[in-house]
Amino acid sequence: MERALEKYTGKLFIFEIISIILGLMFLAPFYFVLVNSVKTLGEILTDAASLPAIFHWGNYSKVWDIINFPKILFNSFQITVISVIGIVLISSMTAYRLVRRPTIYNKILFNVFIASMIIPFQSVMLQLVRVTSILELRGNLFGIVSCYLGFGLALSVFLFHGFIKTVPMEIEEAAVVDGCTPFGVFFRIVFPLLRPIMVTVTMLNCLWIWNDYLLPVLVIGSNKELLTIPLAITKFFGQYTKQWDMALAGLAIGVTPIIVFFLFLQKYIVEGITAGSIKG
Fold this sequence. Notes:
The protein is mostly helical. It is 75% helix and 0% strand.
């Protein structure tokens, strides 16, 4: 018994060491961003890993003014919030219908959602640019939000679909007996029960949309009124010069809101994914 316990303790110690090493590897990019955001460009090019001799906090104020940070922060915020709210509402209602009405057509539709998840975004980039141009969706808020809804629904429907299967039908039947309408059953009974997976879907889509660069650069283009944080930071990368000190300071400011949001909701993410995987 003691030998088995010692063997288990040894394995546990090894796993802890591996976990610490992996954790440090994942934290390394944050270290480089934060440390180099308060250096001069010369210090960054000379030694990017060392601590700065003098902390140049003025990099942050310069970036704030150069890219008009309050404006681009508002742009990123409104695009993210509107897109995520739309994804949560549409995907939850879609998944509820697919689960509660398992017809052959709904099963085919669900499989289409799943199949679309394996299509690389790069393979539809040219078609996306052409379609958005024809429909006059480029360079406006409605266009970028519509694209995020289209590309974000598949995974969200999949997550909601697995979770809704765990919601007992008896609760909905009791609500119907009490005279609740189909919309009332969903929004008054089912929707509040989806909170764990709703937080997961919200967090995953917020991380994606807030940090996304490729889709905004294709749809928003050169519209300066709708520039998001990733697009604005590219201002510091020219053909002949790269202002790493300004870019890293802007990146540090830009990721702060979403990191705080993630840390606040991280415990609900695992809870939602685990609950949604109980039934398949």
